[in-house]
């Protein structure tokens, strides 16, 4: 028993659209959809603007950019007494090892802005002895004392009581604009300036391990990761400082190679455009060339890795494992290890096997996907403006990201300076209470808790606004996700409308309406802002929950409750699947919205049932198309990456002298490869949207029409023939 042409038996999934002889593609006479959600969306945007304005009025980014001394003054801020003092110096960093640091999140010692960190060991007492013979010792030491203090003969007890000078200084290097001891590990022994011990200024000899513990504690407070206290090694701070040097070198590489990176990205854009133009005329041949080209390239990679592995095998030191040498900034070190090439060879072999198996078992689906991509290239060739629409999406996303980041910074820096009592005495009842630095010296606290200080703690306040800063940050994040997903939805709906106009033109390109992309953009904004916002909100809520789950997972990493970790893992997995399903459904719902102009729920339902009625076609075709487009992205980014590799490693003789001097050649190389992939991704995303739209239109075409003169198919005969053959083969396979 056969299915009647252009219709479905009663009881099948959903009901196909009834035949409308006047239907010629996207409906022009349509009304506004999901108006309530549109109103809410507009109100939320206005509220977001108000939130940004309030944050701008109360916030001060300087609190994030500059470190703050014990008196609430910024270090390094221009047009202030500390303009030339950009580094924060701790009077007694040993106090940072006090357990109160973990409670108060502030080191209980005087903190002063200085122009440079100390480069030698010295104590105030030793300075007084040497001052009688050499006045220069005081000139050096006093730059780490309070401004205006100039009495080297003052007794040490009074100096420490009045907090005029530190009792000692140690050789330090700046890290996060703060002076930390200059740790160096020599033959497994931790040293500072080649010393393993030092004088603490109170007549005691201390080990540099005490400095390490104190520096770790304060660094932990700065990073906000208190749990890292139990995970450090003796070279923890040294590794962080080395990482800072690596970061500086990376920045230098970007500064010297940005022009060539830009040229590489322009080349990738031109290659992507040429590739798409070639698809317009030779889509089938080109995609098969891409497939076999990738197979050949991966095969060559396997052979090269095996050759390198064989040549290194047996050489001295080549059998050292990657875990033994740890992280190295010079990647060439890893290339001298046989294990590196073995990992490369295994990875490429797995990739090669996956590609070949996909081609063998899904060869018919690959043919259909290529046919759809071929038709998609014709559609893009008729509406070339669609290739440049991703630029609009990029600009809107950049605006959203910039506004969110600025608002987050201003919210984080809102509040007035709060001062608290810091004491090294465990039984001081005034510890962590707010205080006034101007009147603190006259209070009873200094008598009851000797050595206590009134130091800057953080920025905050007691107003309603300050109490709900965290809630406002969450609102900032949720609205940001909503705006980003709305921007993406707007782009998908706009492109879908343009490509649907192409498909439903009986005589292509004569019947394609003028300016289909602009018309589709106008319809999406004018009639369907609410529907797009509705779909974006659903997706944003799921993403917001996923972010909260990731945050909880990060916080509970040290927990030993196996059930909690298992439950959290299950929730993360479920919401990951839910997010991807919603993305898939939203994408198809936006296509139906662009064609029929119905609300979001109705469009999502129609798209779902339409896909279910064509499940044999949908099952594999979507992923096969993504796979082919991924190979195209891989080919473009890989080709530009190989060219960049030869350039930055000075292997192109003609332009060797133009290559900038680099610390790490992989910095601009990886940037070019990643940027090329993202550029190709932007162009091929248009292709993916085109294929999805054409596929849904094809399914609708089969239900509406039967190929007769009165109800002709709008699809090309070749595409109809391939898809019908596939459907019949699928049915035959299902029956057997």
From TrEMBL:
Please give the start and end residues of each transmembrane region.
35-57, 258-278, 285-303, 341-362, 383-406, 479-506, 527-549, 561-582, 627-648, 664-684
Catalyses: choline(out) + n H(+)(in) = choline(in) + n H(+)(out)
Subcellular location(s): the record lists: Cell membrane
Question: InterPro entries from the entry?
Answer: Choline_transptr-like (IPR007603)
Q: What is its main location?
A: membrane
What Gene Ontology terms describe what this protein does at the molecular function level? antiporter activity
Q: How does it sit in the membrane?
A: Multi-pass membrane protein
Task: Tell me which UniProt keywords the record has, alphabetically.
Answer: Antiport, Cell membrane, Glycoprotein, Membrane, Transmembrane, Transmembrane helix, Transport
GO CC, alphabetical: plasma membrane
Provide the function of this protein.
Answer: Choline/H+ antiporter.
- Would you identify the family this protein belongs to, as annotated? Belongs to the CTL (choline transporter-like) family.
The protein's name: Choline transporter-like protein
What gene is behind this protein?
slc44a5b
